[in-house]
Task: structure prediction
Amino acid sequence: MHLSQREFDLCRMLMSNPSQVFTKTNLLSRVWGMDSDADENSVEAYISFLRKKLSYLQSDVAITTIRGMGYRLEVEAPAMVGA
Result:
C-alpha cells in the first residue's frame, strides 16, 4: 500500500505511542511543523485517508477518535470464529 510522506509521518507518530492520545494541534506541530500553513482540517483529512487505507487492508489496527481530545491508534481484538 502506497502512503504519501504525510500519511507515513502521521502513521509513524501514532504507531510510536499507540496508547497515547494525540491532539490535532500536537499532530500539526509534529507532522507538519510549526512553520506550516496547515490547519486542523488537514489533520482530519489525513486521518480519513489513513482510515480508508487501513479499512481496505482489513487491518486489525484502527485510528479512533477520542471525543474532545484527539486520536489514538488501537488494535482491535480479532473476531472469535465459531464462538
The helical segments are 5-16, 24-32, 40-56. Residues 5-75 form a domain with the Arc Repressor Mutant, subunit A fold (CATH 1.10.10.10). The longest strand covers residues 61-66.
